[in-house]
C-alpha cells in the first residue's frame, strides 16, 4: 500500500472519529447557545426577581448567582437565587432627600474581583454628615446577608457643593488588573444656562460653573477615576492615568475628564476600554449659546478629556459666553480647550477633547436613526463575552459575543452595539425590541453564565414606583412553549347558552403538534378538541381555561370569562343630519337610546355621553373611516401618554416636575398660557417650578403640543357632567384650525347585572370634515399611496371610501394634478360596476406640481354606501393619469 493511500485512509478515519465524537457530545459545537444568526425576540424571557422597589440604582452579580443591589434611599438588598427571596441587608444613613440634596444617596455598588475569597463589597454613597461628600467605602460581608458595619474603610471622598440637581450620579466597576473605576457627576446647576454650557463665572454663582469641576484637572467631579484598592483600605494610583502622579494642578486619580453626568459606566475586562453613558444638556435646538443638547455613549480606549463643558457630542463646540454681559466670545477649540474660569484650580490648557462614540439629541438624528426621538438619558452597560466553558443553558448566545449593550432610561430601549477590529463603532441592533417592556432600565450586568440582570427604576423619576424591579433575562435556544389564545362567538347571554370556543389564534413558534384541554368553569367534563362548542345551563360567571401542551410538555394557558344571566345592553347613537360628515354652520342634533333585556327600566345615571374633538395634525390628517371600538380619551392625553411626560410628572403629585393639576391651577386664567406652555414643551427650559428644567420636545408639532396643554389645563376645572340623552350641540372646536379634525359622540351604559355581573355596552357617532385626504382611502387598487397623495393612477385604478352618507351633499371638489392625460373619474356605489352617482371628465394640468380644483355634481343614493372612485381611459396611453391631493364635499 502506498504512503499516499495510507495518508488518505488515516485522514478519512480521523474525520469519522471527529464525527462520532460530535454525535456523542450532542453536537456541542453547533448548539443553540452558539448560534450565530439573529435570535428571535421570542427566545428571550424576562423574569421578575424582586419588585416594588424604591429608586433602585446599581447592581452587582456574584459568581454563584447572588445579586446585590442598592436603592438611593440607602438600602442594600440581597437576592438569593436558591430561595428566590430578597431581603434588606443594611440601610445606610445617607443624605436626606431634600431639595438641597436631590440626587444624592446610595448610588453605586460593586463586588471585589476576589469577592469569593475576601468578601469585600464597595459602595459609592453620600453619608448623612458634614462636610457633604460622596465617598467610596469598602465593607466586608459575613455570609450572604450580613454586612460588618465596623469593617468600613473609606477609600476616597469627592467633596460636594449642595445644589438642586446635584449631578452627583456615580457608578463603580473593575478592570482585569484589579483597578477600581468610579464615575462622578459635575455637581453643577444646569438650569440657568438655557440648556447650553453652564460656564457662569459671575461671583457668588460657583455652582453654575462646570469649569470648576468637569473642566478642572484638579477636581474629582465630572470624571471617571481609576484607583487600585489596597488590602489595608487605602489605594494607590495605577500607571497610565491622564496625569502622571505629581503633576502640578492635577489629580492623579483622573482617568477621563470632561464628563457631565456619567450616571452609568462599565469596563470591558477583556480590553480595558471604559464605556459610559453621558446624560447631556437640555437645549432642544441650536442657538447663539451653542449646539442643541446631545446624550452620549462614550468610549475611552485610553485616558482623555471628553470635552464638557466646552464641547458636546462629536465635539460640537460652545462659545465662551459671558453670563454677566450676555455677550458671545470665540468658540472653544477641541484640540486645546482653555479653562479661564476664576473657579478653576487646575491647568488652564486642557488635553484635546475626544468625540463621543454615539451621540443623539431629543429629535431623531440621521447618524443614528434607530435611536428615535424623545427624552434622553443614555447609559452604557457591559460588553458581553461568550464563554463556552461557563455558559449556562439560559445565558445569551454566542451571537452577542463582544457586543456592547447600551440603554436609555427615558426611551426604554436596549441596543447591542457592534464594534470593528479597532473597537470603532460599526452598527447597532435593538435587543428584545418587540417584547422588552423595559420600565426605565437604570443598570444591567451579566451573570457568570451569561444571563442578563436588569434593574428597572420604574415609570416616574423621584418616587417609589410600583413597577421598579430587578429582572433576569434568559435565552431559550431550544423548544419554546406554545402560546394559547381563546376566541369565542360570544361571552355574555342567558342560560341555556351555547358558546363556540376557538383556539385558532393560538400558535407555537416551533410548529409542534399540540394537544388541547378545555376547562369550561362550570363543573362539566373537560374537552380535548381544538374548537369545542359548549352549552352553559346555569347562570353566573364561568372562567373557561384553555391549556395547550407541546410534545415536550411545555404548556400555556389562556382564560376567558363567560357570563350567563345577563346580556350586553344595546346602545345606539343617532343624529338627524348627515351621519358621516359635519357641516360648518349646522349644529349636531343627536339622540342616544338604550335597550336592555334584563333591566326593566334604563337608569340614566349609568349612561355616560361625551363629545370629543380629535384634531388633525398638519402632517397627519385625522383618519375618518378606521373603526373606533372604544370611547376615545382626550387627544392631548393620548399624545402625552405616548410621549415621555410621565417620566417627570404625575397627575396630582409632585415628582421631579410639578403635578399636572398644579400646572392647570396656576395657569387656569392665563389667556397666554396655551401658546406659552406649548412653546415650553417644544423648546424645554426651567425656572418656573424651582430649578429643575423640563426636557425639550422638538419632535412634537405645535398642534400636538397644544393638545397636550389643552388636556393639562382642562384638569383645573371640575369634570363636566354628562350630556343628556338627547339634545343639540354647536360644533365649534374645529373653527380656525385647518386641517379640520373629527368629532366623536360616544355613549356607554352599564346595566344592573341581571342574574350575573354588570355589563357595559357602547356606541359612537364619528363625524369627519367635508375635506377628505386622498391617502386616507380605506382601499386602493393599482394606486400608490404616499403620506400626502394618491398617485401612479392608471386605467381601471380605483380607491374606496366605505360607509359614506351623502345626505345634504350635492357636489364634490377634487384637488388634483395630471401631466398630460385627459380621462374620466366615476364614482360608483357598492362596487366598481355599481350605479354611477358622479362623473368627472377632467383635463390635464400640464405639470404634476400644478394642482387645480374642479367641482362636479354628486347624487345622494340614500343611506350609507361604499363609494368606489374608478378611473377610465380606454385609449392608450392610459398610464399615469392622475394625482389626488384631497377632495371636498359640498
TrEMBL record:
Q: Does the keyword Nucleotide-binding apply?
A: no
CBM6 domain residues = 742-890
The domain of life is Bacteria
InterPro entries this protein is in? 6-blade_b-propeller_TolB-like, CBM6, Cellulose-bd_IV, Cyt_c-like_dom, Cyt_c-like_dom_sf, Cyt_c_ID, Galactose-bd-like_sf, Glc/Sorbosone_DH
Question: Domain PKD, which positions?
Answer: 482-562
Instruction: Supply the Pfam families for this chain.
Output: CBM_6 (PF03422), Cytochrom_C (PF00034), GSDH (PF07995), PKD_4 (PF18911)
State the Gene3D superfamilies in the record: Cytochrome c-like domain (1.10.760.10), Galactose-binding domain-like (2.60.120.260), Immunoglobulins (2.60.40.10), TolB, C-terminal domain (2.120.10.30)
Q: Which stretches make up the Cytochrome c domain?
A: 619-716
The protein in question is named: PQQ-dependent sugar dehydrogenase
